[in-house]
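Run log, item B.
One chain of 196 residues. Sequence copied directly from the ordering sheet:
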Amino acid sequence: MSTTINPSNTGSETAKSLGLKIISVIGLTLFTGFYVNSWQRSLAEYAEKQQAETTVATSTSKVNTVSEETVPVVTEVTMTVPETQAKPKITDSDTLDKLTSVLYNQIDTSWKQYPTFSENLVYRVTMNSAGNIAEYQHVNKAASKYIAETPLEKLTNFTTTNLEDASKATAEFLVILTPDGVLQVNQWMAEEGVEE
């Protein structure tokens, strides 16, 4: 018994396979673009929220008092909060890459608890040039609620009180812990034109 192969069927199958690959690449590209755009939008909203919360408005109130001679006296009270000096930022890409790896390893090796949360926990983590976690902030509500299920509290160097550590340059990172137990650590990126 002999088998014959129809060349037109092979070409048709190759075209279908190539078409599926092209559609898959286009779909993946669109999904990635949507995900990155959504992530950048979320970071921009968070940065705007942080800027609005940290901007201290000068509050002025007027108090009218009446003396015995019934002459009104106007007193103006102005309250201002002194600005704290910002720590220098780490900008060297090699150092940032190294710190990203250090932070990932610190969290990954310390994260032992099985996640009970059902949505991603998103944190903004500040690390100094010595590789110590100086502070962290929750970005979403779930991150605040489930902080005890993460190693961030234990890893944060709250005891850093000496002037050397306080003056070290810092870098900020986006840390995401997923309900599936996946850890993501990326450099913190803010939208251009948004000051923090």
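Observations after the first pass:
- Residues 7-54 form the longest helix (48 residues).
- DSSP finds five helices and six strands in the chain.
Flagged for discussion on Thursday.
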